């Protein structure tokens, strides 16, 4: 019988983690463990400790290394043959292990599944889901390297070097695809099964949506500087071009409308979402650019401080 390990990195997830753990402790499989690696300043660790009697293990890192470091600590502490890496707002179906186990038995090294947003009544959540469908699920599955509900063989994850850490600024976004690409370079056998569906809660309030989209922007210079070895001028030029592109698309209206029309086509509200999606798209682009420039400045200052002692 295959043993699975679920690794959940958390940071100030007091509003989401209980619902996630409730869905995990009732999974239909006889041999699995749940490891939460928490770096929070809110009530998250207290909530997780309340699940100790139900088999949930809590790790509190001595040194903060961001989401990448938390994932790595969880994987290294895991005892399962296969690790499932989750975000704190992701919920697995009860038969999740029974659905992915045949793929590993057949020789798969990592398995990608489909992710669906739960709170589709909220505009920003609906935009996240619809844009994701339009941009990602319509592409060739062979090009996909990461999804919510991602799982892989533990030993292979270690051979791939785990998630990138050790930089002057912790990478906060974009590391997922890098990790998947490393698995592919090792010759790992990938299985994409979009019939297996996991759900997650997307940001609904404006503040949460802004923060998450800005966080994605912050990850862009980190990945390009640390992993792709870009220079500051090249990263700055790319960030500048993004600002110009956003301004032109919004000022001329038509390009923005065409993008949002494409997203609205897969929204349950259809054409009624075109204009609301324009608002969500514009906020997304602004937040991303703000995060991008903030991150670039932070990296520059950190590297300069390190260089000058």
Briefly say what this structure is.
This protein has 309 residues and is of the alpha/beta class. It has eleven helices and eight strands.
Give a quick set of tags describing it.
eight-stranded mixed sheet, globular, 50% helix, alpha/beta, 309 residues
Descriptive overview:
The protein has 309 residues and is an alpha/beta fold. It has two domains: 4-200, Spore Coat Polysaccharide Biosynthesis Protein SpsA, Chain A; 206-307. The chain contains eleven helices and eight strands. An eight-stranded mixed sheet has the order 3-2-1-4-7-6-8-5, sandwiched between helices.
What would CATH call the architecture of the largest domain?
Alpha-Beta Complex
Order of helices and strands: EHEHEHEEHEHEHHEHHHH
Global mean pLDDT: 94
What separation lies between the terminal Cα atoms? 53 Å
CATH class of the largest domain: Alpha Beta
What is the count of distinct domains?
A: 2
Largest sheet, described in full? 8 strands, mixed
**How much strand?**
15-25%
Low-confidence stretches: none
The dominant shape is: globular
Please list the strands of the largest sheet in the order they lie side by side. 3-2-1-4-7-6-8-5
**Individual helix count:** 11
